[in-house]
Amino acid sequence: MSTIAIIGAGIGGLTAAALLQRRGHDVHVYEQAKQFARVGAGIQQSANAMRVLRAIGLEERLRSIAFQPASWNNREWDTGTVKYELPLGEVFEQRYGAPYLLLHRGDLHAALFSAVDPARVHLDMQLTGLESLPDGVNLRFANGHECRADAVIGADGVHSLIREWMLGREEPRFTGRVAYRTTFKASLLGGYAIDDCTKWWGPDRHIVIYYITPNRDEVYFVTSLPEPEWRNESWSARGDLGQLRAAFAGFHPQVQAVLEACPEVYKWALYERDPLPQWSKGRVALLGDACHPMVPYMAQGAATAIEDAAVLARCLDEAGEAAIPRAFQRFEATRKARASEIQLTSHRNQWMSKPTAADWVYGYDAWTMPLADVA
After folding, report:
1. Can you give the pTM of this predicted structure?
2. Residue 210 annotated in active site
3. CB 271 within 8 A of CB 292
4. Closest CA to 298 of 211, 368, 206, 196
C-alpha cells in the first residue's frame, strides 16, 4: 500500500485519513495549528455526508450527540411566512437512507479525529515547500522536518499552499459580505420557543438558527450580511453584538429573541473562488475547500469535502502505487462537475427559498457513483 501525506487536519483531511487508513495505506496528516480549537460553530450533516461517515463507523456516535430536526423551515424575515419547508426527520431518512443531523462543528471534528491513529496526526507542521517527482513527493516544513510520500492530498483550505504550488498564487475573492456566528445555551432564551431549524430570508441578508444538541440545550446561528469594509477571515475574531442586533432590527421576534439572548458573537469575512481548472498534478491532489471553497448557503461545504474523501479512497483502491497520478485524474473527473455545481448554487443563495428539487444533493452516494474513465 502507498505512503500518503495529507496536508490539513480539518474535516475533509481527517475523513480522508480515516478512510485510507482503513484500507491499509500508511497515512500521515500534517496540520499547521499547534492544537485543535473548539470554535463556536454548528454544522449540518445531510444524508450524502452521513453515508460516508457511516462507513467510518461514526453514525451512532453522531446520532447520540446531534439534533435531528423535523424540518428545515425557510421564512420571510419579518412576517415569518413560510417560503418553503423541507421535511427532515424520519421522512428525510426514509427517502435518502441516512439522517440529517445538526451538531457542533467541534463534536464532528472530535469524532473524526477519534477514527484516525493519533500517532499519525502531526501538529505544528506548517508546509513550506514540496517537490513532485515521478516516483514520489518531497515535503518540507517550517520546523525543518522533511519527508517523502508516494502521494500528497492537499486538504489545506481556502488559502491552500498546495493549490498555489499547482496553479500559481491567486487570492480568493472577497464577497463583500460577512458572517456572524455563535453557539450559546438555550436556557438564555428564558423559555422562549424557537423553530428546530430555520433560515430567515431578508432583502439583502439572512440568518440561520438551529439547535445542535439532541435535548435542545444549545443553539447556533450564522448570518450573512453586507459589510464591504471588513475583510478579516479569522474564525476567532469577536463581533460587536450591538452592531449585529442593529443589522437585524425589524426581523421576526424569534430572530430578535435569539440575538438578544446570545452573550457573544464571532465574525468572519466570506471569501470564495471560481471553480478551478485543475485539481491534481502528478502525485498531488486537492480536496475540499482547497479546490472548491464555497459560501455556506447550502450547508454543503463540509459535506462535499467528505464526499471527496470517499471518492478519492475508491480511486486509490483501484490503483497501484505507480498508477497514483491516474487515480487522482479519475478522482477529479468524477467529482469536479458536482462540486462546481454546488459551489455555483451556493453563490446564488436561492437554495430552499422556494420549492426545491433536492435529490441531486442529498441523494448522492459517493460509494456507488460510477467513477469516470480517464485515458
Report:
1. 0.96
2. yes
3. no
4. 206
Helix (H) or strand (E) holding 106: helix 105-114
User: 210, 266, 297, 364: which is the annotated catalytic residue?
Assistant: 210
> Count H helices, E strands: the chain?
11, 18
User: Nearest CA to 148 among 31, 30, 33?
Assistant: 30
> Which residues share a beta bridge with 211?
219
Q: What would the mean pLDDT of 305-319 be, rounded to a whole number?
A: 96
Residue whose grid cell is 430555520: 198
CA separation, residue 249 to residues 16, 69, 261 (Å): 43, 27, 15
Q: Where are the beta strands (DSSP E) in the chain?
A: 3-7, 26-30, 42-45, 71-76, 82-87, 101-104, 121-122, 127-133, 136-141, 146-149, 151-154, 173-185, 197-201, 206-211, 218-226, 266-272, 280-281, 284-286
Task: List, as one string, the DSSP characters of 32-65.
Answer: SSSS----S-EEEE-HHHHHHHHHHT-HHHHHHH
User: Which candidate, 320, 319, 362, places its Cα nearest to that of 338?
Assistant: 362
Report the pLDDT averaged over residues 223-248: 90
- In the sheet that holds 136-141, the strands lie side by side as 127-133, 136-141, 146-149
Q: Please check whether residue 209 is in contact with residue 258, taking contact to mean a CB–CB distance below 8 angstroms.
A: yes
Torsion of CA 342, 345, 351, 353, to 10 degrees: 180
333-356: per-residue pLDDT in tens?
999 999 999 999 999 999 999 999
- Using alpha carbons, select from 216, 178, 177, 175 the residue that is nearest to residue 197: 216
Q: What is the 3-state secondary structure (H, E, C) of 76-105?
A: ECCCCCEEEEEECHHHHHHHHCCCCEEEEH
